[in-house]
């Protein structure tokens, strides 16, 4: 019987890996149109991607309101909001939390941008960021998309480190805008 233990262990490991893979489709490719959405923010106001046509949009997906990494990331965007405004860019945070959770999170940390609630997980699925954890819980992965003024994905960040992410995105946004002016 002891010779079956490694096989069982390998099967268990494979099953656990399968439970931690993305739950749905792949993310939209750079250069493709960003998936449309209609979601409510922390104040109950509806937002659609089409509302921002002609503007640069930074859409950052994050797992859970008021957790350490998510707070670090949100506060980084908060601290750079004037620089994003100067660049004419809109920052939108998105998670599968509800409007009530977003409101408390935004108020607690004085977040001056929209946190969009995706409780049906439809937008996280469309952007390929929905992840199933242990087959029990689904949350958005920490990924960011820069959407250009024509509604195309200009840049996609995977495996985001929340510390310093906002500054890196801002630098890339400036470079993308400069390249867009020369073409």
Amount of helix: 25-40%
Number of strand elements: 9
What is the radius of gyration computed over CA atoms, rounded to a whole number of angstroms?
Answer: 18 Å
If you average the pLDDT, what whole number results? 89
Strand order of the largest sheet: 5-4-3-8-9
Low-confidence stretches: 12-23
CATH architecture verdict? 3-Layer(aba) Sandwich
CATH topology: Glutaredoxin
What distance separates the N and C termini? 67 Å
One letter per element, helices H and strands E, the order comes to HEEEHHEHEHEEEEH
Structural class: alpha/beta
How many domains in all? 1
Map the helices and strands.
Layout: H1 5-19, E1 38-40, E2 46-48, E3 56-61, H2 68-79, H3 81-86, E4 89-95, H4 99-108, E5 114-117, H5 122-126, E6 130-133, E7 137-140, E8 143-147, E9 153-157, H6 165-182
Parallel strand pairs: 3-4, 4-5
Antiparallel strand pairs: 1-2, 3-8, 6-7, 8-9
Describe this structure as you would to a colleague.
This protein has helices at 5-19, 68-79, 81-86, 99-108, 122-126, 165-182, and strands at 38-40, 46-48, 56-61, 89-95, 114-117, 130-133, 137-140, 143-147, 153-157. With 183 residues, it is of the alpha/beta class. The protein has one domain: Glutaredoxin. The chain contains 6 helices and 9 strands. The longest helix has 18 residues, at 165-182. The model is unreliable at 12-23 (pLDDT under 50). The protein has a 5-stranded mixed sheet. Strands 1-2 form a two-stranded antiparallel sheet. Strands 6-7 form a two-stranded antiparallel ribbon.
